[in-house]
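Note to self: the last two entries modelled the partners one at a time, which told us nothing about the interface. This time every component goes in together.
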Amino acid sequence: MIHTEALTRTFRSGKDTVEAVRGIDLDVAEGELVAFLGPNGAGKSTTLRMLTSLLPPTSGTALVAGTDVVADPAGVRRRIGYIGQKDGAGHSYRVGDELVMQGRFYGLSKSESVERGRQLMASLDLAGMENRKVSTLSGGQKRRLDIALGLIHEPPLLFLDEPSTGMDPQNRANLWEHILRLRAERGTTIVLTTHYLEEADTMAERVVVIDHGRIIADDTAEALKAEQAGDHLWLSVPAEDADAAVQVLARAGEQLERTPAAGTVGLRYRVAHGTGTLPRLVLALHDRGVTVAEASVRRPTLDDVFLNLTGRSLREGGPALTTTTEGQPA
Amino acid sequence: MTTSDLVLPTRGGAAPDRRTSSVLSDTGNVWLRETLTIVRDPFSLIFSLLQPLIFLGLFGPLLSGFTGGQDLGGVSPLQWFLPGVVVMITMFGTSMTGSNLQYEIMTGAFERILATPLSRPALMIGRALKELTPLVVQGLIICAVAAPFGFVIHPLGILLGLLLLGVFGVGIGALSYSLAIAARKNEWVFWAVQQTLLFPLLILSGMMLPLEAGPGWMRLASQFNPLTYVVEAERALFAGVLADPSVLWGFVAAFVTAAIGLVVGVRTVTRSIF
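The predicted structure of the combined assembly is written out below.
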């Protein structure tokens, strides 16, 4: 569905040249649900704009839905749906008019547009809102209207740029419910960008981590977490036993942290299989006379993956969701 | 295509095989969408119709004062003045094409429309034609209103005159469109540039006051103003003189303006990031 080779894009800002995207090689198969994850300014949106033919690449090639983005940009646009970060529907228009005109823009007849608009409105909980002015819709309704606008021509490939930015958790869940259902019904290939870790983690089947204009990791969220981060094991031991504990733990994994507290020392390790390792470690420590006061295992998040890959946290830049941690002491 | 085909989901990979859109039908669709704002809210149109009548009603008597109430060589001063008013409302209308666009750039609708297969020139021609639509009505109304006061109606001339303004207006509309995109991060820049350019262009075209009485530099400057040729052509056409050389030059100026506007506009659209 998508095939790119060494896709790059540079911008000139005064005398400086900014390399926003530096050689993206990407293949997306039919029916995949792929998330581009990365901090703001990583090059996600620029990549998306090149794939949707909205921005010509500086170099490299991209075939999208079988069409070259440079040779036939209008052909690419005809075969894809694109849902941008902002409101797609004009605020001064009526909901029904925007849907019908969108259909006409894609070459559908008036009756086809009306019929598809009606179906989409019904399936996106917008039934009966044809004559409402777009500016009177709630944020969630506007976003669902964007989805309807993006799907009016039933594209085989749908791009979503930061689809849930600024939405509250309830609306976000509702939006995803609709997206996933429409995907199940139509088999649409979906490519989205996000800087929400949880969104990439739970929704996407494949996560492409982008940083500084390059793909630095590309796999399922589970595989990325297993390979790149491992589980985080946290133990609290009496201060006088800390050195003995460290000797035992050194065989289990890599030490991340050693934090002295009142009479105890907190130790954090990265280990391969946390829940399986913990009981054995507690026993081994017990054999050495070390009594473990507290212990917890935390499954890694995609933030740990990003941190491990880049040495930076994704959370620093923008707002991100807090992911659940399993009984980790504060 | 039957109705049952419509509800069948498109399977991934099977690209929808839509007829290739033409610039003409795309322009029609863009125009239709823009015009829906007028159709759904006709009040704005009523006010825009009043504007040229105010100009005519307040300027006309002053004009008679200048000529001492005398006709100019046997024709009403309105015959000279009215084409200028029509050109002026065209300039006011089409130079604001970009202002509606700025709002849509800001809210995001523009990006959504850019992602459709619509042809790029159609985006700006359609928008400019929307600004020109009320103008046709406005032009016809002021001609009808001026008729009892000595303005002679030459239907074919007026028709060609409006066509000429249509071509010229597409060029001005496309330039306004480009300006709106260039100034998308500072909206006031759009208005500053539009206002700064509009009035010198209007005055240096001899639209409101004849330049024959002006200083030499003004007459020279007017030679480089495409609007000058459009105004002269309109005066000839509204007077029913279709074979005048000024008509030819007017159309040349209009087509050159439209071509430049569309080239600049398409380049601006393809090179900007929203």
